[in-house]
Design goal:
14% strand, 8-stranded mixed β-sheet, 22 strands, 733 residues, 7-stranded parallel β-sheet, alpha/beta
Length: 733
């Protein structure tokens, strides 16, 4: 009886098979039999195996049809094996020199273990340093042979089949075979781990696994992804029948569901049946969750919770949010290249330029929001300051003529960030930006918070999972010197959400100045630009982003709304900026203005606003024009996103819960009636405190010109302000 039987499936790897077989036959320890498993006697791999068999009698080729899959090939090899211990080797991997001698010595030392787990090298396909992913796990194991209860996290599920040696008599006694189907390694490793009575580890790499350029076949999309749950159910059922202790069952459960959640969070692997996969996985989770199981920390724990609750919509939203966040993170610039890093480091050693200010809005989406309004006022009141606006390359075309700008990620971008004394943003500058002593950072924000922000999001799983590190977030907050707010509510919420040592500037939002400075001619011009018909009632519909949705969903049949609301009604659709694809669209009485550069212009053109929970309502309230809240899913939004106050209890106007209610509010005129006016008046008192048309001036004087707080012009009382006129004649409060 040979000491080792080494089984090598060869389907699809004929080109590398000879290297794998040579790595076995070249071992210094020679008491072995080598069993290549080929598709058929006339297959390319069979020719390679036959040539090796002619040269070495230890080679015993066998055949298994491709239809039997990897499990069939390995089981065929098992039936042919006669060695004391069985090893598996993929046909494109290598057995490292001295591996069998090391295994033999360790097996002799640990005398008769059922399973021995080993380390392995994982080598990139083209270039890069090899990794040893099993080493940290095996380092926790006892030194000698031991029962699995002494190291319950060593279930085998996290280790490849080819990184383990199995006692053949143990496999025969328990009638262990590879389960049919895909993900057979997972099923096999789970079954052998449950059945093993004594195990040991070898803290030495035995196999060099060469990652395939095209990646694992199991990662490809297709219906085979659903069979992952077959293997998980098989293992969990066997664990229950075997009466596995809770101490062993808990890590086995976690490791199996790590695989499940990895697939569930990648919809591209499940082109169909994703909901069915999620539901079945949830049932398995609830059925087999061990006693005393504690969910993992972080995002994985959130996924466990949603899976157990069957919350498919929230899980899908979490997945989508993570992808949005990832794409946003990829857009954030960092000085990655060595030359750029060196130049940035050099520029950081140069003196700050006291006449240089850098502006950015919405992660470089263009000339917009509070930074643009401050920039424009700075050109008027502080012409000695050279201002540079930061913009992504695909938004350069939309920059106004005469505005100096730098493309994000460019050499000049990093240069101005290093040298600027003043830095103004409505989001956050990239992680790699250094806050220099003497520089002044102004955070302008970009809305009044109804939904939770910053660290307040941590208790809401769907948004917390995509928020990234709160430690890093607070590190960015520590760069702020000033933080802008437009009402006392915002000041309080910013202090909660972004705790820091910055100074609050209760000056109003500069972007809202135009609501008090625009003229009737300006309103008429914007309406013409947007294509609003003469005499029409323009209703701006601006729904917010839903964290529990993966894409833009209008939530309302806008054409039907127009028909039901009245023949003179047209809708200006402005989706959240996440869904701005840079082009105008629309048909009939619905005009898509999502891509329009200025949300302020769009508001000026509208006779009324319909929104759900978007912060645009706080800005639009400055115009003292009717606002209707369409709160068809308020309870869901409140529970998944978290809110700072009960909007339906203190709305800026009528609240509709259904499309029919919304249409009725416009059809009967209550959208502009006395009750609407009263609600709007109370809302404006609370949320339009500091917006009076002079916010940008106050910011420039305080931040860029350094004037003392007592010299800054006070806010004009609400009753004395005159908003820009509406196109239609409306009753005002």
């Amino acid at each position: 009886m040979p000491r080792f039987s080494i089984i090598v499936p060869s389907h699809g790897v004929a080109g590398r098979l000879s290297q794998a077989l040579d790595s076995v036959l070249g071992q210094s320890f020679g008491d072995l039999e080598l069993i290549p498993v080929c598709d058929a006697p006339d297959s390319p791999a069979a020719a390679v195996a036959a040539a090796h068999a002619e040269r070495d009698p230890r080679v015993n080729p066998v055949h298994s049809p491709p239809s039997a899959g990897l499990s069939g090939a390995r089981n065929t090899g098992l039936r042919a094996a006669g060695g004391a211990y069985v090893l598996f080797l993929d046909g494109d991997d290598l057995l490292l020199p001295g591996a069998l001698a090391a295994l033999d010595a360790r097996l002799t030392e640990t005398a008769g273990v059922d399973v021995m787990y080993t380390e392995h090298e994982r080598t990139p396909w083209w270039e890069g340093e090899p990794a040893n992913p099993a080493a940290p796990l095996l380092a926790k194991a006892p030194k000698g042979a031991f029962p699995p209860d002494r190291c319950p996290e060593l279930t085998g599920v996290r280790l490849p089949v080819w990184s383990t040696a199995y006692r053949r008599a143990f496999l025969t006694e328990h009638e262990l075979l590879f389960p049919d189907g895909h993900f057979t390694d997972l099923g096999w490793s789970g079954l052998t781990g449950i059945a093993a009575g004594r195990i040991a580890v070898l803290r030495r790499a035995v196999v060099r696994h060469r990652s395939r350029r095209q990646g694992s076949r199991l990662n490809l999309p297709g219906p085979h992804q659903h069979t992952l749950l077959d293997q998980v159910e098989l293992v969990l059922t066997r664990a229950a029948v075997a009466g596995l202790s809770a101490e062993r069952a808990r890590p086995l459960f976690d490791q199996l569901f790590a695989h499940v959640l990895k697939t569930a969070s990648r919809p591209e692997r499940l082109p169909s049946g994703h909901r069915a996969f999620f539901r079945r996985a949830g049932r398995l989770h609830r059925t087999h969750r061990p006693a005393g199981h504690r969910r993992p920390a972080g995002s994985l724990g959130v996924q466990h919770r949603l899976l157990a609750a069957g919350a498919y919509t929230a899980f899908r939203a979490l997945r989508g949010a993570n992808r949005v966040a990832s794409r946003a993170a990829e857009r954030l610039p960092r000085p990655r290249m060595v030359r750029t890093r060196l130049r940035y480091a050099r520029d950081l050693r140069r003196p700050l330029d006291p006449r240089l200010a850098v502006f950015c809005a919405y992660w470089g989406r263009g000339y917009a929001c509070n930074p643009a309004a401050v920039h424009a006022k700075a050109r008027e009141l502080a012409p000695h300051i050279r201002s540079v606006f930061l913009v992504e390359a695909d938004h350069v075309h939309a920059m106004p003529e005469g505005v100096d700008h730098a493309v994000i990620g460019s050499r000049r971008y990093w240069e101005v960030l290093a040298r600027a004394t003043y830095l103004v943003n409505n989001a956050n500058f990239a992680e790699g930006v250094v806050k220099r002593p003497g520089s002044v950072h102004l955070q302008t924000q970009h809305g009044t918070p109804l939904k939770t922000m910053g660290v307040d999001q941590s208790t809401y799983p769907v948004v917390a999972a995509r928020s990234g590190s709160y430690t890093k977030l607070l590190g960015r907050v520590d760069r702020w010197d000033f933080n802008l707010s437009s009402n006392s509510h915002s000041t309080q919420m910013w202090e909660r959400a972004f705790p820091g040592s910055y100074e609050h500037l209760e000056y109003g939002y500069p972007r809202n100045d135009v609501y008090y400075t625009a003229t009737a001619d300006d309103v008429a011009r914007v309406r013409r630009e947007l294509g609003v018909p003469e005499g029409a009632t323009a209703v701006l519909y601006a729904p917010t982003h839903r964290d529990h949705h993966t894409g833009f969903e209008p939530g309302l049949d806008l054409e039907a709304f127009c028909e039901a609301a009245g023949e003179d009604v047209v809708v200006l659709l402005r989706a959240h900026y996440f869904y701005d694809v840079g082009r105008a669209a629309g048909s009939g009485r619905v005009i898509d203005v999502t891509a329009h550069r200025s949300s302020e212009d769009v508001c000026l053109a509208a006779d009324a606003l319909v929104t759900d929970y978007s912060s645009i309502m706080f800005d639009y309230a400055n115009l003292d024009r009717p606002i209707v809240v369409y709160a068809d899913d308020w309870e869901v939004y409140r529970e998944t996103r978290g809110v700072y106050f009960d909007l339906p209890a203190g709305p800026p106007g009528p609240v509709a819960r259904t499309p029919g209610e919304l249409a009725r509010i416009f059809r009967d005129g209550s959208w502009a009636g006395p009750e609407s006016t009263a609600l709007r008046s109370a809302f404006r008192e609370r949320f339009c405190q500091f917006d009076d048309g002079r916010a940008a001036e106050r910011v420039v004087r305080r931040v860029l010109l350094g004037e003392p707080p007592e010299a800054i012009a006070p806010v004009t009382p609400l009753a004395e302000r005159v908003p820009a006129p509406a196109a239609a004649t409306l009753v005002r409060s």
